[in-house]
Design goal:
single chain, alpha/beta, 60s Ribosomal Protein L30, Chain: A, Alpha/beta knot, 2 domains, 4-stranded mixed β-sheet, 7 helices, 11 strands, 29% helix, elongated
Length: 245
């Protein structure tokens, strides 16, 4: 009898919780899918037929059981779970990078991945310590964008900068003097964001050009996913990225 356990960071597998996520998984990372689980509450119809066809064509096993859903998902409307092997990313030397320094919130990371994909900036460096990108909470918050995102973890920003030094660095800080409106990124640049609670350490003011997003004094700061999305939107306009809308 199979024993289903909650996701653990040290495992080599993770899960897509929900039919939409699982379709994204099958579309972009089918070679990493191990099996698909189907809940008894999943209705017969076109959606399930499409899923069956995709799994049949890719040689992916479908297992009908409710047990794993009791372990992995507290959502009443989750009727499909995809089990996949963790995959490695690779950052390109050219283009834009999003750099998250010590991110701690799974939902925020997933949301940033989705925005980054939307603005054509799906290259992400994560500086440890940081939330596990394969946590199912990240996968779900990304709405499948994780399967189209190249992300790599680094033990320090210095390690990242040592590998990708020939680029413009833009750390976002509340005490920066340069406004986001005033920058004009070139071809290769990195937008750098700090931890949700503490932001970037003071030493980042000496790295590249520190940037602030102007806002009214009625708030202390923008939350991380909103700040990152605004920054990506502005940068994509100024460096003339092209993306589908």
């Amino acid at each position: 009898m199979a024993v289903y356990k909650r996701y653990r960071k040290d495992d080599n597998i993770s899960y897509s919780l929900g039919i939409t996520l699982t379709f994204e998984l099958l579309k972009y990372k089918a070679e990493y899918v191990q099996r698909i689980y189907v809940h008894s509450g999943m209705k017969q119809g076109d959606t399930l037929d499409r899923l069956k066809n995709l799994c049949r064509n890719a040689g992916i096993e479908m297992i009908y059981t409710d047990k794993i859903f009791h372990v992995l998902s507290q959502k009443e409307n989750c009727y499909i779970i995809g089990e996949f092997r963790k995959f490695e990313g690779n950052l390109a030397k050219d283009g834009a990078h999003i750099v998250l320094v010590n991110p701690s919130n799974a939902g925020n990371m997933g949301t940033i991945m989705r925005s980054a994909l939307g603005f054509g900036m799906n290259q992400m460096a994560v500086i440890r310590p940081g939330v596990d990108a394969f946590d199912p909470k990240v996968v779900r918050a990304s709405m499948g964008a994780i399967f189209s995102t190249d992300f790599v973890y680094f033990d320090s920003f210095a390690e990242y900068a040592g590998q990708f030094d020939n680029r413009e660095f833009y750390p976002f800080m509340l005490d920066a003097e340069v406004s986001l409106h005033d920058i004009h990124p070139g071809k290769n640049f990195s937008l750098i964001f700090g931890n949700e609670a503490s932001g970037l350490p003071a030493e980042f003011s000496e790295i590249g050009t520190s940037i602030i997003i102007p806002h009214s004094n009625r708030i202390d700061s923008l939350n991380l996913p909103i700040a990152a999305s605004i920054a990506m939107y502005e940068a994509s306009k100024r460096c003339r990225f092209f993306y589908s809308v």
